[in-house]
Amino acid sequence: MVHHLNLVDMKADERPKIKPREKHGLIGLSREALKDALSVVGVPEKQRKMRASQLWHWLYIRGVSSFDDMLNISKDLREKMKAHFDIARPEIISEQISKDGTRKWLLRFPSRGAGKPVDVETVYIPEEGRGTLCVSSQVGCTLTCTFCHTGTQKLVRNLTSGEIISQILVAREKLGDFPEMDTPQGAIVPKEGRSISNIVMMGMGEPLYNYDNVRDAMLIMADGEGLSLSKRRITLSTSGVVPEITRIGEETGVMLAISLHAVRNELRDELVPINKKYPISELLEACRSYPGLSNARRITFEYVMLKGVNDSLDDAKGLVKLLKGIPAKINLIPFNPWPGSQYECSSWEQIETFADVVNHGGYASPIRTPRGSDILAACGQLKSESERLAIRESMALEAMMGRDDEG
Ligand code: SAH
Ligand code: SF4
Questions:
Q1: Nearest-angstrom CA–CA distance, 240 and 268
Q2: Domains of the chain
Q3: Ligand 2 centroid to 140 CA: how many Å?
Q4: 328-334 mean pLDDT
Q5: Distances from the Cα of 116 to the Cαs of 139, 157, 327, in angstroms?
C-alpha cells in the first residue's frame, strides 16, 4: 500500500516498470496437467505422481491457500512452487447473508491477458438436509433469453476451470467445510459434516459454451480424493446447446437440467433464442439419449412462470405430453423481475394450478421457494455491484432454487 502511494508522487518516466510476474495457476488443473506443471520446478518424473497427489490433498481436501501450509512438502520445493505457481483465492468483494441463511459472495478474479478483472457471484442456499452452491461459468452470456438479466449483459469472458473451482473453495472456506488444520491426517470432513452437498451450474453464463473449462471443473468437483462431491449432486443447467449435451454426459456423468420454459417452438424461439438453432424436438432427442438416464437419474426441466405468456393450463398439459417417456422432473421457477424486464411472475394460484396438472401427469413438479430475496440472491439476478445498487433501490425481488426431490 505504502509503496503504491510513493509511486503516485513520482513523475511518470521515473516510475519503475513493475510488471507482475505471470504465475501459473494450479487450481483447476487436471492431475495430468498438475504433473506436467511440476516438471517446470524440477520435480523428477518418478516423483511427479506422488507430488501431484500431495498438492491435490492440500488444495482440495485441506483447502489451504498458501504453499507454506503444505507441511509434508520440503521447504525448498515449496519455495520453488511459490516462485512459479499461484494458488491464491479470488478477492471477496462482499459477502451478504440473508435472513433465511442464503449467502451471496461477490468475487473478483484478476485480469487475464489484456482484459480487466472480473466480478462473479456465487450463491449458497441452505435447505432441510442439504446445501446447494450455485456456481457461475461465464461473465455475461452470449445468449439473449428475454427473461434473464444475464442475457442483457454481453459476454465478457469465459471463466477458467480454476475460477469455477475457486468459487467452491471460497464457499467451503467461508462455511467451515474444510477440516481444521490440526485435524488428524485421514479425517477429511469436519466433525459437523459439510454444508455444501450439491452444486448447480446455474449462475451466470451458458456452461456448454465454455465446454472444456466446465468439464474439467466438474471432474475436479467429483474427484473422490479431492472435493468429493457426488456426481448425482452436481447439476449442469443448459439452455439447450444440443451438440454438447451427450458429450458432457459421457465425459462427466453429472446430472442434467434443461431450461425449457416453453412447449411450442414459436414461443421458445422468443424466450430462449437458441431454440431457433436447436428446436424442441432435437433438444428432447438429446435428452432421451442422455447417458445414464433412468428413473433414479432423471433430467430436470426448468420452467420459468411468466404471467400470461407460458403459464396456461394448455401449456401445462402440453408439457406433460412433450416429456412423455423421458424420466423427468419439472422445476417450476417463479419469475424474478428485474428493472426493465418485460414480464411479470405468474400468480401463486396459477403456479399451483399448473403444478397440479404436471403432477397428475405423473411428474414431480417442485416450485422453487423464494430464497435470499433480501440479498437478491436469485436466478437471473446475478450481476455486478453497481447494477445491484440500482436495483436494490428500485424494487424488491424474489425467488429461486427450491427443492427438487433429488439428493
Ligand atoms: N445458461 C444456463 C444456466 C444459467 S441460468 C441456462 O440457461 O440454463 C439458470 C436458470 O435460471 C435457467 O433455468 C434460467 O432460465 C433461469 N433464469 C434466468 N433468469 C431468470 C429469472 N429472471 N427468473 C427466473 N429464472 C431465471
Ligand atoms: Fe444465458 Fe442462461 Fe440467461 Fe439464457 S438463461 S441468457 S443461456 S444465462
A1: 11
A2: 19-86 (1.10.150.530), 91-390 (3.20.20.70)
A3: 9
A4: 94
A5: 12, 10, 43
Q: Which residues pair with 123 in a beta bridge?
A: 104, 134
Residue 240 — pLDDT band, cuts 50, 70, 90? Answer: very high
Q: What pLDDT does residue 115 have?
A: 85
Cell numbers linked to 48:
511427479
Question: Ligand 1 centre from 370 Cα, in Å?
Answer: 14
Ligand nearest to the CA of 380: 1
Dmax (CA) for the chain in angstroms is 76
145 belongs to the catalytic site? no
Please give all residues whose beta carbon lies within 6 A of any atom in ligand 2, as ranges: 141, 143-145, 148, 150-151, 205-206, 239, 259
CA gyration radius, the chain: 23
Tell me, yes or no, if 345 is annotated catalytic.
no
Distance CA 1, CA 20 (A): 15
CA of residue 63 to ligand 2 center, whole Å: 31
Residue (of 213, 174, 167, 224) closest to 195 by Cα position: 174
As a residue count, the chain comes to 407
Compute the distance between CA of residue 13 and CA of residue 31 in angstroms, rounded to an integer: 45
Question: How many percent of the chain have pLDDT more than 90?
Answer: 75
For ligand 2, atom 8, the nearest C-alpha belongs to 205
> Which residues have any ligand 1 atom within 6 Å of their CB?
145, 147-149, 202, 205-206, 237-239, 259, 302, 304, 333, 335-336, 379-380
